[in-house]
## 1
Amino acid sequence: DTGTLAHDLPNYLREQGGEKSDCSLRPFPVSFAQLGWDHWIIAPHRYNPRYCKGACPHLLRYDYHAPNHAVVQSFVHQLVDANVPRPSCVPYRYSPISVLMIERNGGILYKEYENMIAESCTCR
Amino acid sequence: SPLHPGSLPAVPTLPLLQALQTRAPGSPGWRVGPSSGQPLRYMLNLYRRAADREGRPRRGRSLGTNTIRLVQASSHGGQPWAGRWYMQPLTYLLEGQPEAEHLLRATVVYLPSLPLARGRLLCALELVAAGKTPGLLLSPTARPRRGWAEVDVTPYLALGNSSVRSLALQHVCVRAGRAGGGHDAPVLPSRPFLLLYLNDTQAGLAPPAAEPHRHRR
């Protein structure tokens, strides 16, 4: 059956209405001014953590960096038991963010928070 | 814009907002009067060298640490001016540093020379004698022709395992140059500030696990 899957990929993409419905990175900008925190969070002015959303395709393309388990789970969903969900679209790589803020005692703090901005997505 | 202050949930869901909310104004212990002036400009320049507009640390421009804390001095004592001399005792309070932040380096940043209407004001820093540590004049690690100078005070803060609660310095300046006929307006040299270069071993956001570690039965 996997052979047939490979053959119907073009149809599958067309049927899904193009790229945007695929698992991909989406923006989610938050402005500290909106939160009323810009008088003590000095920089950055904006924080865009981004997020991943979309359907994981039947055939997980190589650039998704999906683990083998995700490939197996996709087949199980497609060929064995649809109750087993398809792999989920989640962040794959992150980058840190640096924040400059004023502390309660009047000091000024520069801090890097790890894994704060999603840089890419995977299916797993 | 997805969020409006008016529609903020009681507990923000974004991890960064949760962590930052614990530091927000109005939370207990917040003292009015955020920093301004030269310390703020210094840290803003430092930030712009290290991170882009989106807040992402610049590649290859790392500061070598993930946390830098600027501590302002509290001054005490009477009139700092005596003739041509300016002597200001300064104390930097170090209590309340989070345990996860480990000190890598500490420097005090000050202006060694300030232009006056007539002549210059030359400044230096002295370590105030405390306990077994004798007082001494601190020499800057680099001698810039203009602008800020840094003196390394790491040895006086990282005393073995005991945590030092405060650092006491003396900011000493002298008016150099031709003595003018008239009376120079009193100058207040900008106050030196302490920079703590720290390694935060919990640079994440989630507070330490509140539950004790449970062993598998």
Note: The helical segments of chain B are 15-21, 38-50, 154-157.
## 2
Amino acid sequence: ILGGRTSRPGRWPWQCSLQSDPSGHICGCVLIGRKWALTVAHCFEGRESADVWKVVSGINNLDHPSPFMQTRKVKNVIVHPRYNRAVVDYDISVVELDREVEETSYVRPVCLPHRGQLPKPDTYCYITGWGHMGNRMPFKLQEGEVRIISLDQCQSYFDMKTITSRMLCAGYESGTVDSCMGDSGGPLVCQEPGGRWSLYGLTSWGSVCFSKVLGPGVYSNVTHFVEWIERQIYLHTFQL
Amino acid sequence: CISTTCTHGCHGNTPCDSRTNGSNCSQCEPITLELCMNLPYNTTSFPNYLGHQTQKETSISWESSLFPALVQTNCYKYLMFFACTILVPKCDPESHQKVPPCRSLCRNSKERCESVLGIVGLQWPEDTDCTQFPEDGQGNTTCLLPDPDVDECSPSHFKCRSGRCVLSSKRCDGRMDCDDDSDEEHCGCKERGLWECPSNKACIKHTMICDGFPDCPDLADERNCTICDDNELACNNHECVHRTLWCDGRKHCSDSSDEWDCVSLSNGSSAALTVRRTASEYQVCADDWHPALSRLACGQMGLGVPTAAEMLLDEPSQPGRRRWLHVRPDWLQKNGSALQAMLEKRGHPCHSRTKVSLHCSKEDCGRRPAARMSKR
């Protein structure tokens, strides 16, 4: 996260880290159930086999395992069948864990939005991740507050890419607070009036985040995929 | 290839001999960079001439934004061709080595377009020193020159009648972007080789029609895709499956859509459990009902865990003949199956005349732990 701040442990209990040996943290992910997480499809390019991955949750400092940390192997990786790596469209994957996580105050799923429920432009939401900070990679989870930007306005920042309805933009024209390399798959969450937090976006792409070209970040639009996510969970839960 | 496994830039997980070095990794890979998909070659090799390690890195690079923007100034007809030769260099299929652009192509691009960049205070990309590229026809080395017929606009761009390239999304957007306004001419989907959604006139690719994913707001692109027999129903992917096979707990549509949405709760206050079977709705007879089945039903609907399960007497005053599903005697052996697989139709009605009613509560989500207080 660029322009963010270090997060208090347990503040974002749905944030998880998708890891693979020997590199360790590769991407962010988000717990949406005790046995299910979401991340983006591009994290699995060239490594679609579930065997090489594990999901670590309840962690704040990647360098210091905490007693609240829970690690699960990945049982299934379900990449969206329409994922297009050339234009980074339909950039979403459902991850099935080999067994349920134990729900604690440090490990807890986030809510999915209702079908058709999109965040309004100019509302403020939060992004989190262990991605690049512009000058270094952090050990501790970072958080940043970003503003939701309409698709039309977002398109004007990206001349060379088409912003589709499967995408959601958030951030600032000046790029002051933005996601960056290593944040991919992590959450963009907004607080609902009742106090709960819902997952509206997954960090997907943007300009090279510490280059001269700035602008908002582009996130996978989770609302667009809610039905698909629910069906994947159903199909992989029952022996049909 | 310094480690025993190739990195992403080395094309997936192909194992490399641990003695090889990075230079031996070179392989040809298909071009996926949207900007450069109309080149007279279709494979590339990385790293490119700007030092990017992968096509993904290239796609989000500063130069990938710069060149398409610069093309719109019409500064040089072959600028985009030159840009692509350095962004996704041609890969020689025999040697697997990069084929550079010719020095004259580089010089012409730089001479004609660098000054345009200067006007807006930007600099020509570093790492494009033209002397690194060979002169045309120099010895045995080969280099790339544009074919006079080369398309100067990438597939992401529309070519104005004047020759200028503008972003495809600006075509037919109601605003004039070409200097000759040609981007707003012939704006029907048909003229653009696309299909028009009837409700909002949006244009979609023909490959998106009847592919199982709705793209028009009213789902028009997924209608009338199949003609099934009277005794069949259409799956989400437009296959036809006999109606007696729907919601029987086994998959018959290849996308499993015959087993979707089989279990629901009625909207009434009673929240009666309703199960679809052979394309009709049934209520569930409470005889032999078990709490484990309540857990299964709530979980299957994505509604969490049961908070109450009631057995409601079926009101005879309500009109219509009741249709019942009964718990199968062998339901325990069907561990891991969906609820509809554990129910069956029988020749007799429900003995107790009570139906199952459920209340489920979703698992807690989206709550952060309360901030801990400490006395100061």
Note: The two ends of chain B are 57 Å apart (CA to CA).
